[in-house]
Amino acid sequence: MIEVRLHGRGGQGAVTSAELLAQAAIGIGQYAQAFPSFGPERRGAPVQAFLRISEKPIRLRSKIYKPDNIIILDPTLLGSVNPAEGLKQNGFVVINSNKSGDELKKIFPGYNIAIVDASHIAKEELGVPITNTTMLGALVKATGIVALDALEGPVRARFGIVAQKNINAYTRAYKETKIVKAKQGK
Amino acid sequence: MKEGKTGIEVSIAASIAAKLARVEVVAAYPITPQTHIVEHLSELVANGELDASYVNVESEHSAMSACCGASAAGARTFTSTSAQGMELMHEILFIASAMRFPIVMAAVNRALSSPLSIWGDHSDVMAARDTGWIMLFCENGQEVVDSIIMAFKIAEDRRVLLPVMVNLDGFSLSHVIEPIEFPSQEKVDAFLPPYDPLYTLHPDKPVTMGAYGMPELYTEAKYAQEMALIDSKKVVIEVMDDFGKRFGRSYKPVETYNTEKADTVFIALGSINENIKTAIDMLKEEGREVGLIHLRLFRPFPSDELIAALKGVKRVAVIERAMPGGAMNSPLFNEISSLVHSNSMGIQLNNYIVGLGGRDVNPEDFHGIIDDMLSPEAKKETPKEEKNYRVIGVRG
Known about the structure:
The complex is a heterodimer.
Chain A (H helix, E strand, L loop, with lengths): L1 E8 L4 H14 L3 E6 L9 E9 L14 E4 L19 E5 L4 H7 L4 E5 L1 H9 L7 H10 L8 H8 L3 H14 L1 E3 L6
Helix pairs in contact in A: 1-5, 3-6, 4-6, 5-6
Chain B lengths: L4 E5 H11 L4 E4 L6 H12 L6 E4 L3 H13 L4 E5 L1 H6 L1 H9 L5 E6 L13 H5 L6 E4 L3 H16 L7 E6 L7 E5 L3 H7 L23 H33 L6 E4 L6 E5 L3 H14 L5 E5 L1 E3 L3 H7 L5 E6 L10 H12 L5 E6 L9 H12 L15 E2 L5
Helix pairs in contact in B: 1-2, 1-7, 3-5, 7-9, 10-13
């Protein structure tokens, strides 16, 4: 089972990201579960969403405290919360950032990092800086958690006429994501 | 709906189940975390996808009253609520069961205020447990869909004619996207024919419903109702068996997990059973055998099935998501205790309160409970203190 914790701000669509990934996995016959950090929706406040994908039925309904990977939709979160809390040693920090790999390595020492300027891509491809679908491409690039084309069905079902723009955004993010591997032995 | 499993939010799946059951009247008032169920049903009605009347009401008291009226008129009736909403309809819950209306309600279990909590526990349903409703508890989203469909068949059986409450945990079940298989409309129609009421309110053939019960008759009326509730268990079993044969997913009022080798078991209700099963698997890897007795049916209380399941068991941890409210123990514990002692089963019983107001309960917490049960302190037969239970993870 792979566990992913998504960090964003209320209104940025972290829950939708988790949902699309779960639907992509279920669509190819895997088991998956996606859910929000339950609570009142507070626009702009730090929020979490959770994703589990497994070959076997998932029998776990608590939050994810030791994720295999994390996704950070909003780089400004780093000032207020520690998204990497509990992240497993070989896990990926998949982050929307325009910072360099060296800068981010200082913030997440010892972790693999996947970096994409999703805000920039989303603005160009979608016209709005909503990064939730763009970041799907970065996660897939870093982890291969689902195949990129498995996302298309759920994204089309969800977004209708604007689906193609979202597909363009995550496909571009997939290409532009930079992978910075942690050094062995750390 | 397409064949195979769909990745869908459990609340939306619950409303699709009500649609598959061809409900004719929905009367509901939105309350978190039930909201998505009734929102989606109102959409289905507004879009013309579901041929039903959706009654907008101003409160849950009115919601259940409207459900009673609709059911009295002979309509297949559905509603859903949570927490304070269930308490507001409390008065009418008794009327629905006593007037033998086969209403089905999805109860999205949530903590009661105060302090204000929108999150899950069982304090709402436990406060409504003796209202005369048949009560099912669901472990996962698939079970929610299947239980709603089965609930109508149970409720409308002429041997039963009682309302059924399908309990699903708020958020930890209601708001989760997970794989769910929907039965086809044809198969549901074959399983669940249209509701054929025994009596209806109709101006052409007037009848009195809910008449005065003088002291000479009230006891007999309540006795008849109680016997109907007790006897409904065999219909519950029949319907579950029939469902299993037709749809390939079998359910039982009481199910066990890993109890063959275990003499220490958990007993619990609802989706927390999944976490307990994961905890049991983890303990098994450590070479420790612990089992689970999982109650799908809570009302009528499945005593015979529990006695069978408890055969050979030496220790039971009753897990509950509600405070005892001044009672010696939490509600489920009291019933298990009554069963165990009246049958002289000589089982060590311990009571653990967990997961109040949405507090996460992790598999590791159940390891701690097992350790606690095996401690010398936990084996005391007679409670020496006023507090005869433990609240897991409580601070201060």
